[in-house]
Amino acid sequence: MRVITGSARGRRLKELKGMDTRPTTDRVKEAIFSVIQFEVEGRRVLDLFGGTGQMGIEALSRGAAHCVFVDIRREAVQLIRENLKHTGLEDRAEVIQGDYLSYLMQSKETFDLVFLDPPYESEMIKKALQTITSIDKISQNGIIVCENGSNPVWPSVPEPYELQKEYRYGKIEVALYRRHA
């Protein structure tokens, strides 16, 4: 697992041991960033199920202004901090240990780009999307990138949000939601 491009290009990121974390493959990450490449620079990013931090770190490396990483596991939060330090991007990041729903409800921030990659086969994407769209955590024209296993049923969202596009990369499915102006 490495940073694909930008200021931290080529840096290898540490991974958590065990099966609790399933990092996005480099192939899928590269495909996602190819789709959103012009939507990253200068943006405020939320990596809601941080894990290793690789999606938010990739965004920071590509010029995102700031990224908030949220994960409930202490070891994941520690690893994200280590990966940020290793890539030299910690000055534009905030790492929070806590529950994703609690963070969404308590935070006053809005974001331009949100990554949602919770454990597959859970209801977490649905709950996160419902919460994000009901309390308007996304700026105008902001994007939510969701990753899940094969054949997910992507939740519907209220206007001004819209499921813009779905992508399939082998057994991985990615959905792009957008908040229209």
What distinguishing features does this structure have?
7 strands, seven-stranded mixed sheet, Rossmann fold, single chain, 181 residues
- Overall mean pLDDT stands at 93
- Please outline the major beta sheet: 7 strands, mixed
**Total strand segments:** 7
How many helices? The count is 5
Strand content: 25-35%
Characterise this structure.
With about 180 residues, the protein is of the alpha/beta class. It has a single domain, classed as Rossmann fold (3-Layer(aba) Sandwich). The protein contains 5 helices and 7 strands, in the order αβαβαβαβαβββ. The chain has helices spanning about 25-35, 55-60, 75-85, 100-105, 125-135; strands at about 45, 65-70, 95, 110-115, 140-150, 160-170, 170-180. Helix 4 (about 100-105) packs parallel to helix 5 (about 125-135). The longest helix has 14 residues, at about 75-85. The chain is globular and about 40 Å long. The termini are far apart. The model has no long low-confidence stretch (mean pLDDT about 95).
Give the secondary structure arrangement, pairings included:
Layout: H1 26-35, E1 44-47, H2 54-61, E2 66-71, H3 74-87, E3 93-97, H4 100-106, E4 111-116, H5 124-134, E5 138-148, E6 161-169, E7 172-179
Parallel strand pairs: 1-2, 1-4, 2-3, 4-5
Antiparallel strand pairs: 5-7, 6-7
Summarize the structure.
The chain has helices at 26-35, 54-61, 74-87, 100-106, 124-134; strands spanning 44-47, 66-71, 93-97, 111-116, 138-148, 161-169, 172-179.
